[in-house]
Amino acid sequence: MDSYWYYESDEPHFLESCSLCRKTLSLNSDIFMYRGDMAFCSQECRQEQIESDELKAKTWKKTSLSSRSSLRKSSDSKDSVAGKTVRTETLVVA
């Protein structure tokens, strides 16, 4: 058997195939890890995943800041009750 782990499950173990290209990982090959539970067959596959994750994070951050800014503008004009300002903000936890 040339895979790392065998157990009774429908899903393969994360060390059995590359997380990006799905190439089978064998006992005699190097494995490149990322974020603790993502295995890759090469530095190139690993780097492609890292760059993809960074782009997603930047996009999410821009979207989050943009929507927060537009929410703040719209709520500033109508969030007062009997002369008192009421703060309505969204808390995002990642």
UniProtKB/TrEMBL annotation:
<dbReference type="InterPro" id="IPR044533">
    <property type="entry name" value="FLZ1/2/3"/>
</dbReference>
<feature type="zinc finger region" description="FLZ-type">
    <location>
        <begin position="13"/>
        <end position="57"/>
    </location>
</feature>
<keyword id="KW-0479">Metal-binding</keyword>
<feature type="domain" description="FLZ-type">
    <location>
        <begin position="13"/>
        <end position="57"/>
    </location>
</feature>
<dbReference type="GO" id="GO:0008270">
    <property type="term" value="F:zinc ion binding"/>
</dbReference>
<feature type="region of interest" description="Disordered">
    <location>
        <begin position="64"/>
        <end position="94"/>
    </location>
</feature>
<dbReference type="Pfam" id="PF04570">
    <property type="entry name" value="zf-FLZ"/>
</dbReference>
<protein>
    <recommendedName>
        <fullName>FLZ-type domain-containing protein</fullName>
    </recommendedName>
</protein>
<dbReference type="InterPro" id="IPR007650">
    <property type="entry name" value="Zf-FLZ_dom"/>
</dbReference>
<keyword id="KW-0862">Zinc</keyword>
<comment type="similarity">
    <text>Belongs to the FLZ family.</text>
</comment>
<keyword id="KW-0863">Zinc-finger</keyword>
